[in-house]
Automatic annotation (TrEMBL):
Keywords noted in UniProt: Hydrolase
InterPro entries linked: NUDIX_hydrolase-like_dom_sf (IPR015797), NUDIX_hydrolase_dom (IPR000086)
CDD domains: NUDIX_Hydrolase (cd03674)
Classification via Gene3D superfamilies: Nucleoside Triphosphate Pyrophosphohydrolase
Family in the record: Belongs to the Nudix hydrolase family.
Name of protein: 8-oxo-dGTP pyrophosphatase MutT (NUDIX family)
Amino acid sequence: MSPHADATSVLTAWRPPSPEQEALRQAYLGFLAAREDACLRSCEPGHLTASALVLDATGERTLLTLHPRVGRWLQLGGHCEESDGTLAGAALREAEEESGIRGLRVEPTPIHLDVHPITCSLGLPTRHFDVRFLVRAPVGARPTRSAESVDLQWWPLDAMPSNVDDLHPLVEAALARLR
């Protein structure tokens, strides 16, 4: 399966928890219907990305990366590759690459959607249509910072750094899924 076909299938089946997330789901599906290249970073108007909110085995801490270009703490994730069969697989691949942790487990159903403007690898202003997944780390997981990060740390969900305001809806969605 291609990321495009998977994204269409997964987002068609997903039932978001709020009217705002439903509106984004509909927008993503419209974008996917209009653009066969919607999952490729070469799609200049924007492209789907896959990210992972990595929680430790207790579900009390999340692994965040200090992104070098953005200068803020973010969840792990990035662009889909042509070799990715699914969006959840792309989120898992990115989480493994950026954390160095093996044995991560991804839930196949998205927990949150977010569209944000960015200048990414094309060097042009574009948008990321981010599909966000919950990923669980094994007991005792120790991350190793990759070259894609300035820093990589576990943060208690109730004491995250101050510059992650836009991650709070993602964390709330993850906690709702765990209940």
